[in-house]
Amino acid sequence: MLNVSTRCLKIMAASIWFAGAVVLVVKGSSLLAEAYMLRSERHWIWLAVISGLALGFLQAKLVFINSCRKNLDRISTLERPKLWQFFTIRFLVMLVLMILVGAMLSRLAHSNYPFLLGVAALDLSIATALFTSSYVFWKHGDSIDIQAA
After folding, report:
1. Helices then strands (H, E): number in the chain?
2. Mean pLDDT for the chain overall
3. Which residues contact 72 (CB under 8 A, 6 or more apart)?
4. Which of 2, 70, 87, 137 could bond to 91 as cystine, CB 3.0-4.6 Å?
């Protein structure tokens, strides 16, 4: 029941990974826009953007790329893949917790210029790490063979 191919799981994992990056870019950008409305001091906003990008590339290199590879390797070893196995239960729980914490931080940051910049930089760093590491889904061995449909 609810058996799927490993290819399907890999596509689902890649799609969620990429969607998370898009959502965080949109969320981070809206926080930066709010910060700009409070104070138009662009140098602090650009510092938040540059910090987010730099930290994101570092996170991708140190954590996210390896996480993608491990997940794809785990999916490849599944004998009877089920629809919900695109990520581990532990990862899904952590993902829900991260989403809840991120939403709470965004709400707390409203009208607080330094906090807005900090949360925006955090969102952009995670988005950058997700975007940067997503290449693993497309380049990692037989991860997702787009031609074999």
Report:
1. 6, 0
2. 90
3. 10, 13, 136, 137, 140, 141, 143
4. 87
